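Today's session is about reading a structure prediction critically. Students often jump straight to the picture, but the first step is always the sequence itself: look for stretches that repeat, for charged clusters, for runs of hydrophobic residues. Only then move on to the predicted structure, which in these notes is written as discrete structure tokens rather than atom positions. Here is the chain we will use throughout the hour.
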Amino acid sequence: MMNKMITASNSVFILMLVLLLLNGCATQPYGSFIQNPSTTYSKVMADDVTAQIVRLYPAANTQFNLRHVINDPFGNALIENLRLEGFAVQEAIQQSIQQQIFAAPHQPDTEPQKGLALSYIIDQSGDLYHVKLMIDDMRLSRAFSVQADSIYPAGLWVRKE
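Below is the predicted structure for this chain, in token form.
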């Protein structure tokens, strides 16, 4: 009887470990979901996003804290543009799987983070690109259209709070 309990608890432990590891390997819900993104298109979209942010927030008084690691041309251009405009940008740090597993869950920060949480999603459907920007609880989105090897806004900014 004791042998069966030990075997059952080992199975549960192994299952929990596998689920925890898979959770760490899951793709993040933010970033660019475009295969082989064009650096030129990314720069044009980042310039447009930066111009919209400049309209909404005072540059010298605003800090953005990125929610996800930036590893695409759009994100790199956006960070560079925001810093050139005078915004403070705190980039997210990539954690290894070991750090994710052994980190204390919901550990309170010693100091509350200042600034606004910033994340984005970029996707593509044919010749139409869609940029969705999340700043704290506000959502901004805009479509971009490719015409004659150039990319142009395909509508106005949509703002949801």
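Discussion point for the tutorial: The beta strands are 31-32, 63-66, 88-90, 116-125, 128-135, 138-147, 150-153, 158-160.
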